[in-house]
């Protein structure tokens, strides 16, 4: 089954969420159906996830994000691509990111 | 290793206040678990509350509202028990002293729903909450309400037993 994520596309954060750093941790609260639900849907990112999340500004393609991370971190391109695509798939399925037009 | 995971954390009252403000500021409602006994029996420890934004024009005496406690910036969910000018007097039903006067802008939202186990309660109406606010303002007032509730339950139980015997 193919990936939901297209390496040539750009993705940005959904407008329907609240992101807040609390005690050094990034907390993500989706606003599903107009409700920020602390009991059901609350997410946090590890350092790898945070490095990817911070680059989701809708201006860089997934391929460009992967290249930036390859330049910055001591890990193979394959490992980084797997992490990036894996995270973006999960974020996309949970509607925490949107695909940019064009 | 997954880069994103569902978060299990107990937030402090200050942290909860920060998150509520962010959510309400976006025009959304905020659903969370209440802690504490300051509003028993109407809000009990462990109840899940939904707070919705509320415009000034709709704030009324008797409504349960979310405000920021001034000294520690922690979240309080207490009741409007009076009004002075354009400010609202807020107090926990089980507390002896009020929290203070809050402007409409300082009232973050109102309690729209209370979930207790399988029950869902919608605080509605204006007369009953108003009467509760009147009792809440006075020392011993909430004890009267607690007794009235207990008496009500005894009467209800008595009627049920009576109906079963017929």
Set out the fold topology:
The complex is a heterodimer of chains A (102) and B (166).
Chain A: E1 10-13, E2 17-22, E3 25-32, E4 35-37, E5 43-45, H1 47-53, E6 57-61, H2 62-72, H3 77-93, E7 97-99
Antiparallel strand pairs in A: 1-6, 1-7, 2-3, 3-4, 3-5
Helix pairs in contact in A: 2-3
Chain B: E1 4-6, H1 13-25, E2 29-33, E3 48-52, E4 64-68, E5 75-84, E6 87-91, E7 100-102, E8 107-116, E9 119-121, H2 127-137, H3 141-165
Antiparallel strand pairs in B: 2-3, 3-8, 4-5, 4-8, 5-6, 6-7, 8-9
Model description:
The complex is a heterodimer of chains A (102) and B (166). With 102 residues, chain A is α+β, with helices and mostly antiparallel strands. Chain A is 34% helix and 31% strand. Chain A is built from three helices and seven strands. Chain A has helices at residues 47-53, 62-72, 77-93; strands at residues 10-13, 17-22, 25-32, 35-37, 43-45, 57-61, 97-99. In chain A, strands 2, 3, 4 and 5 form a four-stranded antiparallel beta sheet that branches. In chain A, helix 2 (62-72) packs across helix 3 (77-93). The longest helix of chain A is centred in the last third of the chain and has 17 residues, at 77-93. The relative contact order of chain A is 0.25. Chain B is of the alpha+beta class and 166 residues long. Chain B has a single domain (13-165), classed as Umud Fragment, subunit A. Chain B has three helices and nine strands. In chain B, strand 6 and strand 7 (100-102) form a beta hairpin. In chain B, helix 2 (127-137) packs across helix 3 (141-165). Chain B is globular, with a radius of gyration of 18 Å. Chains A and B meet through strand 2, strand 3, strand 4, strand 5 and helix 1 of A and strand 1, helix 1 and strand 2 of B. Strand 4 (35-37) of chain A pairs parallel with strand 2 of chain B, so a sheet runs across the interface.
